[in-house]
Every structure is written in C-alpha cells, then in structure tokens.
Amino acid sequence: MAYAFEQENKFNEFYQPPSESEKEHHLKKMLASSRPIDIGKSLWTDELTWMEVRDLIENGYTQVIVPTGGIEQNGPYLVTGKHNVILEAACPEIAKKLGNTLCAPIIKFVPEGDIEPPSGAMLFPGSISLRAETYNMLLDDIASSLKQAGFKHIIFIGDSGGNQTGMEIVSGKLNQRWTGSGVLAHYIPQYYNPGWEETERFSKEILGVEETRNDGYHDDIWVTAMMMVTDPDQVRYQQRVDAGLATINGVDITPIDDTIELGNKMLKFRAEYTAEVIRNAIQSSKN
Predict the structure, then answer these.
(1) Which of 89, 121, 202, 203 has its CA 20 to 30 A from that of 58?
(2) 96-118: per-residue pLDDT in tens?
(3) Mind listing the pLDDT tens digit for each residue in 26-49?
(4) Matching CATH number, 40-286, of 3.40.50.2000, 3.30.70.600, 2.30.30.30, 3.40.50.10310
C-alpha cells in the first residue's frame, strides 16, 4: 500500500494538466471529427447524436420546430399528456412537409393555471403547471441553445391555448435580441388557431366525420383519433372497448385500424396546413 502511494505521488509530481491552448486544440479536433457510422433516421434532435445534428445542419437542416404541449386533465379516457402525444406524431409530419427541418424535444410543461390556490387544470390531480415567467425563460433558453447549435429558423408551435402568449412574447424578444444575426424566431399561432378548427372542418366536410352529441369531457373525436396514431393505449382504447364505452361525442372509435387511419388523415391535413403557414413566414422574413 505504501509503495502504491509513493508511486502515485511520483506520478502526480510529473503530471501536467493540459494547457488552455491544448484544450482548445482538442475541442476543435473533436468538433471536426467525422461521424463513424451512418446517420440515424429520427427527426427529433434528442434522438440524434451531436454529430448527426451537426451534419444535418451543415447539409441544410437549418429549420427547427419547438413544440409545446402540456400536462392537464382530459376527462376519464385521455392521459394528462394528451397534447404531447399528439405532437409526437404532428411535429415530424410538419417537418417532413417542410423539408430540411428537425424537431426539438417537446416542451411538456406549460402554464395550466395557478398552483396555490389552484385554478384551471390545476384543480385536477395529475396536472402540472409552470408560472408564466418560468415558461418564458424555458422557451428563451431552449431557442437560444438551438441558435448556438447553428439553426437559422426556430419555429414555435403550441397544441394548447395556454401556451400561445408566452411563445408570442418570447419570439418577439428573441428577434429583437438577435437583430443582425441571421437567425429568426417564428411564432406560428395558426397551428393551434385556426388549425384545430380547420382540421375539424376538413374532417366533417371531406371525411364525413360528424359528432352528434357532447359527452361533456375535455375530449373529442379529433383529439382521440390523432392520439391513437401515436399510441391507442393513451386513449385507453381496449379498456373502453371492454367496458362498452368506445365512443366519444357520438362517434364510434372502433375498429381500431379505421380510427388510426382517420387520425393519420387529420394529422396530414393539419401538418400541410401548418407547413404552408411556416413556409410563408420564412419567405416573408427573407423579403
């Protein structure tokens, strides 16, 4: 033991930590190193390696969507992460329609009401809320991180009404701060409004889907079908079938494949609608 201690001390005497210039050289070498394997297929930045994100940006993927969801009560059938479940399918679909676009991780926590005393969704167990200032700082830091990575167009969309004000405020402040940088933040309210209403209209007029009653839940056939594209269990599909409750607002959600197909059609419509708005916003910023 004493010998080992002596040897360690001798090693420490001769060891010289790398200089700042050596550290900088090593970092530059690492950042410039080639990716050793084929690139992954995901459009989500958190499902890519840092090398994959770097290479995609260098190859023109300079647009990134920042999707905001929420954790709130949604009736007896839908999970509290309803908006996040929809965005899991919606964001990549929008990115594909746009091309050269990635999706940042879903921001799952948003303002849902006062915490104490509780209001809004916070009156129900399972809901999680952020104060507006916390939410805004989160948006700012995430967008600033994406700018630092090399993205040029940072696009905010929100699947819930309570998300909109913060995205509008933050995108405006970012654009003021980033003046002359060549990077822009885009707040796209149309994904939510009139995006929801347009999707409902499309479903009624083109797909022939019509709700015949209101069950009184924070739920409808449009939400349910789009969630089922990601995961039917998130609407408790099988449990509802077993209990004879596989309807929402008068619309049957069986058979499962038909409702998933319906959800896919809704998502593709909403994605194309949103992508067109984003294209116009980016084009306008270049004029």
Answers:
(1) 89
(2) 999 999 999 999 999 999 999 99
(3) 778 888 888 999 999 999 999 999
(4) 3.40.50.10310
